[in-house]
């Protein structure tokens, strides 16, 4: 992961406190174990392959789950300690989820927090089965057995490769001008409301996009950076500062970020979590 963050063998080795040759050998052994090249290497730069980006996304999720699991172990001996299980989608973990969790933990140190990444279509079932207590999702949620609390409105951005005619912030931007581009998007079963909103934006701009499907937002960004198309993603992905890509906001593309809870769940810990989330969310509101 250190090399994926630095994209420079020398810098990554320095941060790890080892020489560069052993790091290079470790990466080669990892690629051999995976069976695929994870990094593009040249004399000028190092970049993630699409497979490398997908593996990085999985590794980060596992590390978050490991950290939460270790934290829970520290609290298991405490009698009567409360617990809350929070379902989330991949892109909500970039900005607002960490801020909510930090704030909640500072105010409720004795409460165990379990973070569970799910696809949008899995949230309702997990809530009704009481596998999770709340769900952080995107899009309007109208369900008879669930209550939705809107936390913020986030815009979409067009993700463009560097060198694209509309990549410069000073260049005029129009979604309609991307009509002939290939769009790198999530499959419908993984994206749910995200894909519906994306296709609607393109329709409003007067075209039906030519879509190639990938299974993760990091893979989508990596493919755009490799010149394989463009994408549309929530604006929070821009905070990653991924080399080789540029983000251009899409006007009038507000997308709600909501917390879901069971209507019959009146537990104190769920109410406390929602109160904390609604207090934190306004600082992340992205103006249209």
Describe the protein.
Helices cover 38% and strands 22% of the residues. It is an alpha/beta fold. It has 3 domains: 2-51, Arc Repressor Mutant, subunit A (Orthogonal Bundle), CATH 1.10.10; 82-153 and 255-284, D-Maltodextrin-Binding Protein, domain 2 (3-Layer(aba) Sandwich); 156-249, 3-Layer(aba) Sandwich (D-Maltodextrin-Binding Protein, domain 2), CATH 3.40.190. The strands form 4 sheets. A 5-stranded mixed sheet has the order 4-3-5-12-6. Strands 10-7-11 form a 3-stranded antiparallel sheet, with helices on one face. Helix 5 links the parallel strand 3 and strand 4. The radius of gyration is 21 Å and the shape is globular.
In CATH's first tier, which class of the largest domain applies? Alpha Beta
Number of folding domains?
A: 3
Q: What is the second-level CATH architecture of the largest domain?
A: 3-Layer(aba) Sandwich
What structural category do the secondary elements indicate?
A: alpha/beta
What strand line-up does the widest sheet have?
4-3-5-12-6
pLDDT < 50 stretches = none
Mean pLDDT: 83
CATH homologous superfamily title of the largest domain: Periplasmic binding protein-like II
Per DSSP E runs of 2 or more residues, the count of β-strands stands at 12
Strand content: 15-25%
């Amino acid at each position: 992961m250190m090399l994926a963050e630095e994209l420079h063998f020398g810098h990554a080795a320095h941060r790890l406190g080892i020489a560069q040759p052993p790091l290079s050998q470790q990466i080669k052994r990892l690629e051999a174990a995976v069976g695929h090249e994870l990094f593009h290497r040249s004399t000028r730069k190092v970049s993630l392959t699409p497979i490398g980006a997908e593996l990085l996304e999985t590794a980060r999720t596992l590390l978050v789950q490991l950290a939460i699991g270790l934290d829970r172990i520290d609290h298991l001996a405490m009698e009567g300690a409360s617990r809350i299980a929070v379902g989330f989608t991949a892109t909500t973990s970039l900005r607002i989820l960490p801020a909510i969790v930090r704030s909640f933990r500072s105010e409720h140190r004795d409460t165990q927090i379990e973070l569970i990444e799910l696809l949008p279509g899995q949230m309702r079932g997990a809530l009704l089965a009481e596998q999770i207590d709340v769900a952080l999702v995107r899009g309007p949620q109208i369900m008879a057995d669930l209550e939705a609390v809107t936390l913020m409105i986030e815009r979409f951005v067009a993700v463009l490769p560097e060198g694209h005619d509309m990549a410069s912030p000073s260049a005029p931007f129009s979604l309609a001008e991307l009509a002939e581009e290939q769009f790198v998007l999530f499959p419908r079963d993984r994206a749910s409301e995200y894909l519906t909103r994306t296709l609607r934006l393109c329709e409003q701009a007067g075209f039906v996009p030519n879509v190639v499907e990938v299974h993760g937002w990091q893979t989508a960004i990596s493919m755009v950076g490799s010149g394989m198309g463009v994408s549309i993603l929530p604006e929070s992905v821009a905070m990653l500062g991924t080399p080789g890509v540029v983000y251009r906001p899409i006007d009038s593309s507000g997308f709600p970020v909501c917390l879901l809870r069971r209507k019959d769940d009146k537990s104190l810990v769920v109410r406390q979590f929602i109160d904390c989330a609604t207090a934190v969310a306004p600082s992340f509101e992205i103006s249209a």
